[in-house]
């Protein structure tokens, strides 16, 4: 038992030393100005160009952490075929699908857990909606009746919801 007590005492000493070291550390600098992200984007673009769109986020939900950043120039966006995006966006255009995404992102990832939510409809309706949002890339099967929002879709999904609520 002495060995365990010695090891525990050594760990407690290490934690105390780390706590002291971090207690004295200065806080990270706060971003300057209201538009600090926008200012950073502008600094990377030609001042006479058409501009760019950037979205970024750091998200912690359930037991997962996601960091994401993506940007495109205005020229690229205007030259793209927007009609190709219709199926991806239309998959989000149903209240049950949005609820499913929120529940899955929040940790309810199995079909049995989701089926317990009365507002989601019958099991057949549930599977229909899961297929629709999986086909559009907003979900992926995590095996054995479990679903997950792909990491690369978490911040984009939340950015779309943020824009829609504005």
What attributes does this structure have?
two-stranded antiparallel ribbon, alpha+beta, 166 residues, 8 helices, 4 strands
Quick overview of this protein structure:
This protein is α+β, with helices and mostly antiparallel strands and 166 residues long. It has helices at residues 2-23, 36-43, 74-79, 86-90, 95-105, 111-115, 123-135, 151-164, and strands spanning 52-61, 64-73, 140-143, 146-148.
Walkthrough of the structure:
With 166 residues, the protein is of the alpha+beta class. The chain is built from eight helices and four strands. It has helices at residues 2-23, 36-43, 74-79, 86-90, 95-105, 111-115, 123-135, 151-164, and strands at 52-61, 64-73, 140-143, 146-148. Strands 1-2 form a two-stranded antiparallel ribbon. It has a two-stranded antiparallel ribbon with strand order 3-4. The N and C termini lie far apart (61 Å).
Helix content: 40-55%
Indicate the overall shape.
Answer: flat
Largest sheet: 2 strands, antiparallel
Quantity of strands, as a count: 4
Tally of helical segments: 8
H/E element sequence: HHEEHHHHHEEH
Mean pLDDT across the residues is: 89
Low-confidence stretches: none
- Radius of gyration in whole Å, from Cα? 23 Å
Spatial arrangement of strands, main beta sheet = 1-2
End-to-end C-alpha gap:
61 Å
Beta fraction of the residues? 15-25%
Secondary structure category: alpha+beta
